[in-house]
């Protein structure tokens, strides 16, 4: 089988209720949302705690420092995120390729961040979008979580 190369820039976010830093560098993620968040109630909806564990990866040969992570909540305009978190370039980690001679081609640079919102209010259904910002205000997609009312919350109660 042939192993395909990944993209030059990519990211992923795990959306959950809590991120806990453990002894020895481990991280515990509590209450992970899989493909969407269902809200049991009306909007605006207050969630006491909402966390994001973000990973952003770039190929070393094209890597640029990440200046910040931005979070767009449902209803935000494309150029006005609700949350901006600065990221220090010295927090980026270089991971070596298996063959050091190929490092410029196959090495990667990784950055991660844990963001906790407590509380957070979702004004309407929509999407939480996470982006990493690199030089010249370029964005790397790092994840999206749709938020919608649970189907049972939409049902009309029987007339009595």
Notes on the protein architecture:
This protein has 160 residues and is mainly β. It has one domain (9-149): Immunoglobulins (Immunoglobulin-like). It is 5% helix and 50% strand. The chain is built from 2 helices and 13 strands; from the N terminus they run E-E-E-E-E-E-E-E-E-H-E-E-E-E-H. The chain has helices at 103-106, 151-154; strands at 9-16, 18-21, 27-30, 37-39, 45-47, 50-59, 66-72, 83-86, 93-95, 108-117, 120-122, 126-134, 138-149. The strands form 4 sheets. It has a 5-stranded mixed sheet. A 4-stranded antiparallel sheet has the order 1-6-10-9. The chain has a two-stranded antiparallel sheet with strand order 2-3. Strand 2 and strand 3 (27-30) form a beta hairpin. The longest helix has 4 residues, at 103-106. It is globular. Residues 96-100 have low confidence and may be disordered.
Give the SSE map:
Blueprint: E1 9-16, E2 18-21, E3 27-30, E4 37-39, E5 45-47, E6 50-59, E7 66-72, E8 83-86, E9 93-95, H1 103-106, E10 108-117, E11 120-122, E12 126-134, E13 138-149, H2 151-154
Parallel strand pairs: 4-13
Antiparallel strand pairs: 1-6, 2-3, 5-11, 6-10, 7-8, 7-12, 9-10, 12-13
Concise overview:
The chain contains two helices and 13 strands. It is mostly beta strands and 160 residues long.
Number of helices: 2
Distance between the ends: 63 Å
The CATH architecture comes to Sandwich
Largest sheet: 5 strands, mixed
Compute the average pLDDT.
85
Helix/strand-derived class?
Answer: mainly beta
